[in-house]
Structures are given as structure tokens and as C-alpha cells.
Amino acid sequence: MKNTAKLLGLLLLVCHVAQSQFRKDPIINIQNEDKALLNWGYYLGFNQYDFQFEYENDTATQNALTDILVDKSFGFNVGLIGEMRINEFMDVRFEPGLLYNQRNLGFPGFDNAADAIREVRSTYIRFPLLLKLSTKRFGNWKPFIIGGGYAAINLGSNEDSLEDNSSGEFRMKKNVYGYELGFGIDFYTEYFKFTPSIRGVFALTDELVRDNDPNSPWTGNINAMRTRGIFVNFTFE
Fold first, then answer.
1. pTM for this prediction
2. Nearest Cα to 152, choosing from 225, 213, 97, 115?
3. What is the CATH number of the domain that holds 178?
4. Closest CA relative to residue 170, chosen from 132, 96, 133, 222
């Protein structure tokens, strides 16, 4: 309920800002906001992370009874923004931040929850380097698309642990690389620029650390495990 209330509050804020900026003849706010070479800000948001699994068995024989199930939940993002202006329509952005998320994995073939369920709590420190492509400014709003690569450190990876799933320890790789793509709208208020955006996040790294037993019922049939996620960020500059 708390997450729902926060989400509704953020959506109401976005609707209020949008309503005030889409008037027919708006007063043009902070006209020089995008003319500086360097710009700074911060962002808050939430995320939902998933895993994409590739299995050793042929995909034609893989079915819902043998797939690993992922129970997703909402996490949060917070970070800083450094932006360098290239021209009126292009900016390079560095958005280091902290991300927290929890995913519960359900493994088939076990009769008890202690063996079948693994909690994956991840705290990532992320370093995205992105290119932002914007349209021209329409009054007090400006749409854009954004994309680029990122490196991340998973502080909850347990990569160096000597224990594995046979002892209840699910391990992931500490260093992760990937890319993200998204879109959003800059809203120019009287005092600052407010930007909601939606991002898709796609890890390129196989994040799974396999169990010591090559025939492990938890990891023996997994060829690759990569993060997939959705971000909703709210930026203040």
C-alpha cells in the first residue's frame, strides 16, 4: 500500500505539471536552462527487475514446468546527473546512482520451500553514460529519447562466497555491463526543469555464478542469466 500511495502521488505531480505546461500560450520559464555547457541535477525513481534465462536444454523441449519462476517486486533508484551540451538537440549525460531491488526465484523439482525458493537481494552502484536526443522546445516542454551503456557493481552478489545453493547461498557476479534505452519529456517549471522518463535496462553480462557441482539442480541447466528491468525516473535539474 505504501508503494501504491507513493506511485499515485508521483503521478498526480506529473499530471499537475503537465497541465500547467500544455496551455495554449504559456509563460516561457527558465529560457536559458539548456544553453549552458554543463548542467547538474539529481533523480529519484523506482524499478522492477526481472531475469532472462537461457537453458542448456534445447528451447523446443523447455516448458513452463521446468522454467525458473521469477517473482518480481518494486525497488528504488536514486542518483546524480552530470550533463554536457553538444548542441541544441544532443547532450551527453553521466548518471551515477544507487539501485535496490529484490527478486525471488522459484526452482522446479523441489518439495520444500527451503530448496525451491531463493531470495535475490541486489544493491547496484550504476555508472551509465548516455546520449540524449531531444526535439526542439515547445513552450515549456520538450520530448526526448535516451540511450547508452552502463557498468554496475552488485554489492549483494555473494560472488566470493565459498558456499553455494546446496547451503542456501545464491551467487551472482559482482561486475555487470549492459545498455539502457528510454524516452521522456522535459517540463520547464518556474524554478527548475522536471523530467519524468521511462527506461528499459538490458544486461549483457551472464550474472550467474554456478554451483560447485556441475550437475547442480539449481544452476546445472542454466546457460546464461541476465537482468532485464524497467525504470521510471523523476529528474530535477
1. 0.82
2. 97
3. 2.40.160
4. 222
